[in-house]
Design a protein that fits this description.
Ribosomal Protein S8, Chain: A, domain 1; single chain
Length: about 100
């Protein structure tokens, strides 16, 4: 397929808009997780329900969880009876104390 300059410019503009939307979504998710951590942190851990990520592409969920891992959290996906899924956030051993 041959792409003309106007079409290429439109594609680039759409790509940039999508990147901005994704970044805004990541910031929104981080704010929501930060609030959950603040409200639910007890006994050295916090639980964040998987429903926090409803409607979010799995690649973005992975990105935001990896940011928390890089910030010093051990993040694990857990299951409970009754099909309840959540994430545990525990300080990584090198970040405790």
């Amino acid at each position: 397929m041959v792409v003309g300059p106007k079409e290429l410019a439109r594609w680039i503009e759409e790509s940039e808009k999508e990147k901005i939307k994704e970044n805004e979504l990541l910031i929104s998710l981080e704010n929501e997780i930060d609030q959950c951590l603040e409200e639910n942190y007890q006994s050295g851990m916090a639980i964040i329900p998987e429903s926090t990520f409803d409607g979010v592409r799995s690649a973005l969920v992975t990105t935001v969880l990896n940011r928390y891992r890089s910030a010093g959290w051990s993040v694990e996906r857990e299951y409970e009876q009754g099909d309840v899924t959540y994430y545990t956030f525990i300080p990584s051993p090198q970040n405790e104390g």
